[in-house]
TrEMBL record:
UniProt GO MF annotations: NADH dehydrogenase (ubiquinone) activity; oxidoreductase activity
Record's compositionally biased regions (Low complexity): 396-414
Transmembrane parts of this sequence: 6-27, 34-53, 59-83, 104-121, 127-144, 156-176, 188-210, 231-250, 262-282, 303-328, 365-387
Designated name of the protein: Hydrogenase 4 subunit F
Natural source organism: mine drainage metagenome
Length: 414
């Protein structure tokens, strides 16, 4: 191997969080923090190299990269690094944490590794295993603050997400029966004509992975898990876990020949529009700023799924939206953690005077909130605009869906 070999950097991306997690377990509290921070930075550096190399190709039967996986690997690594560095101050604010710092940082590394593994394999079955592993690691992180509501949220998340992934597993069995393969890259290179069995597989994958994406009506775990998890974990949930689940669905959706038949693309669009509209409605009823951020993430993922269903330029818009949202929403959750530490409450009406008490947090939260709403000149605005253009092009079906999504975005910005 040489420094220009993508496999070398991919191994660093995958093995560094694992090594950091194992070392954090046997280190002291301060040592675990230092190890976790170094591991996160090394992971981000290696992922940045992969993105710069535009690494593409396969290694063996199960490992492979392309432009999409490079982008998502960088995204996960960036938010993982940010959450790891933010965690130090947040952990100190918790009086009786359920997890020791060693176990917390080990689980954080395991959570990141599971997502990175999902993005690095070509086999859809291994992607499913990686996504299932994220449930185990992240559920334990939700209960960090030892609150009854946190335990309830963790159980609800585990049960609902596992039920959804069981449906996704059945979808993969149908897909294998229809195509004879689970190699995502090979199937995408030679898309299959839509058959009844393949249509059922994609539809079930939409429901199964849609549970983890947070699509309506399978979203019921999302507001509780996001609001009860510690803020650095909430940032990982909103910023990269939901997009990782979307990535897994994209790999399944790509096996169908282009253009995707109207019935199937319309099904995807309907799920996305319904999710965005329901989330926009529920956002306006929230009194907790963490739950408000959670429903905002649900709305964004609904808009992104609309872009996937529309295809073409709208798909590029969906990817831009997801990436921009990841950075803006993670920043918002870090700010929410600072506010919670300072005020001891998540109730919106009880938070006053941030400009005086937390000036930097207040300014950052204002910018991240503007970005999350999709206002110009932020990337979320560009993404939503491309999705709108995609819905209005003559070749795209469902201009109505784009207009409905635009209305939901406008409502959430109000």
């Amino acid at each position: 191997m040489n420094l220009g070999d993508p496999l070398l950097w991919l191994l660093i991306v995958l093995l560094t969080p694992v090594a950091g997690a194992l070392l954090a377990i046997v280190a002291g509290a301060r040592g675990a923090e230092v190890i976790a921070r170094i591991a996160a930075l090394l992971t981000l550096a290696a992922a940045s190299v992969l993105l710069g190399l535009r690494a593409q190709g396969t290694w063996g039967a199960y490992v492979g990269l392309d432009t999409l996986s490079d982008l998502f690997l960088f995204l996960v690594s960036a938010i993982y690094a940010a959450s790891t560095w933010y965690s130090r101050g947040y952990l100190r604010s918790i009086a009786r944490p359920y997890l020791t710092p060693q176990r917390y940082y080990a689980l954080l590394g395991a959570f990141a590794f599971a997502m990175l593994l999902t993005l690095s394999v070509t086999d859809l079955g291994l992607m499913w295993i990686g996504l299932e592993a994220t449930t185990v690691a992240s559920a334990l992180l939700i209960v960090l603050e030892r609150k009854p509501t946190s335990v309830e949220a963790a159980w609800r998340y585990t049960l609902i997400a596992s039920a959804g992934l069981t449906i996704a597993l059945f979808a993969l069995l149908l897909l294998y029966e229809a195509t004879g393969s689970l190699n995502a890259f090979a199937l995408a290179a030679h898309p299959a004509a839509l058959s009844l069995l393949l249509a059922m597989a994609v539809a079930l994958a939409l429901v199964g992975y849609g549970t983890k994406i947070g699509l309506f009506p399978m979203h019921t775990w999302l507001p509780d898990a996001h609001s009860e998890a510690p803020s650095p974990v909430s940032a990982l949930f909103s910023g990269v876990l939901l997009p990782t689940a979307l990535y897994a669905f994209l790999r399944v959706y790509a096996v169908v020949e282009r253009p995707v038949p109207a019935a199937l693309s319309d099904l995807v669009i309907v799920f996305g529009v319904a999710t965005a509209l329901v989330a926009a409605f529920l956002m306006q009823r929230q009194r907790s700023y963490k739950r408000l951020l959670a429903y905002s993430s649900m709305e964004v993922m609904g808009l992104a799924v609309v872009g996937v269903g529309l295809g073409g330029i709208a798909l590029y818009g969906a990817l831009i939206l997801v990436v921009a949202h990841a950075f803006a929403k993670s920043a918002a959750f870090y700010c929410a953690g600072n506010v919670l530490t300072k005020t001891g409450t998540t109730h919106i009406e009880d938070v006053r005077g941030l400009r005086a008490s937390l000036p930097w947090t207040g300014a950052t939260w204002m910018l991240s909130a503007i970005a999350v709403t999709g206002a110009p000149p932020f990337g979320t605005f560009v993404g939503e605009l491309l999705i709108r253009f995609g819905g209005d092009t003559p070749r795209s079906r469902g201009g109505w869906s784009s207009r409905a999504s635009s209305r939901s975005s406008s409502r959430s910005s109000a």
